[in-house]
Amino acid sequence: MSNAPRAAIERPVRLEIEALCAACQRPVGLGAPVLRSACSACGEPVELTSASWAHLFAEIDEKSFDLPPTDHDTRVAEQATPEGKLVARYTMAAPSCAKCRAEIMLVEPGTDDVLECAACATKMTTFQVPGWLRTDLPTAMQLYGASRDSQASATPFWLTFQGTPPVRGEQRRNVIQAAIGPGPELSGIPSRPLVKPVERRRWEWYVIIVIVGIIVAGVRECGRRAARSTDRDRDNAVESTP
After folding, report:
1. What is the pLDDT of residues 204-227, one digit of tens each?
2. Could you tell me which residues come within 8 angstroms of residue 121 by beta carbon, excluding any fewer than 6 positions away?
């Protein structure tokens, strides 16, 4: 078993997902996270939102983060949609061949390829999750055995997660902030927004420059007066000499 931190390990999850058709109220199998499909029973469109998918997978991501890799129980997650709901049955399991059930090795996230089963040569597609899902849920990484089109399909597929679930990360930040509390504040002095030192002291530099100028001018004037006084004393001394 790997000793790497849980957040660093890819967590593959096997998924069977259905949406409810708003027209005929029948379940519609979905072979991939798609925003639009069609009911196989009545043909009516089934609309889904990126937020519904993100919330569904965020719940699965958070719960799978706490499960050991040896846990193979099937669980259920649900998410309401504008026209009904998404229902996911998920199991912690690596991708496996649809024909012989041999395990398929994970690839680097972001890979777009067709994988071949080492045991029976059955092929399986793998590609990165859609960009709209990655934007809402950065821990969602790679799809295995998922459909590339929006046609209804009851075929299971796999999704890998990697990293700390956003909800768990937010909880940790809240705990840390609650533990350390707000920053120190001087008693009796109201807090005020910080002002950049350059902006706050600019007028002081102007005053200093003016004062320095006055001092320099005064020193020069004193020097000139002292020089004139010395010249007069010298002239008087010459005239008084017999």
Report:
1. 767 778 788 788 777 777 777 766
2. none
Instruction: Give per-residue pLDDT as tens, 6-63.
Output: 778 899 999 999 999 989 999 999 999 999 999 989 999 999 999 999 999 999 999 9
Q: Give the tokens for residue 90.
A: 């998920």
Tokens of 63: 């719960």
What does the DSSP 8-state code read for residue 100? Answer: T
Distance CA 162, CA 67 (A): 14
Dihedral in degrees, nearest 10, Cα atoms 207, 211, 216, 222: 160
| Cα 30 from chain centroid (whole Å) | 27
The structure tokens listed for 196 are 């950049």
User: Are the beta carbons of 139 and 60 closer than 8 angstroms?
Assistant: no
Q: What is the dihedral of CA 175, 180, 183, 184, to 10 degrees?
A: 150
> Residue 46: which residues within 8 A CB-CB, separation 6 or more?
19, 21, 22, 28, 36, 37, 38, 39, 83, 152
CA dihedral angle for residue 15, residue 21, residue 22, residue 25, rounded to 10 degrees = -110
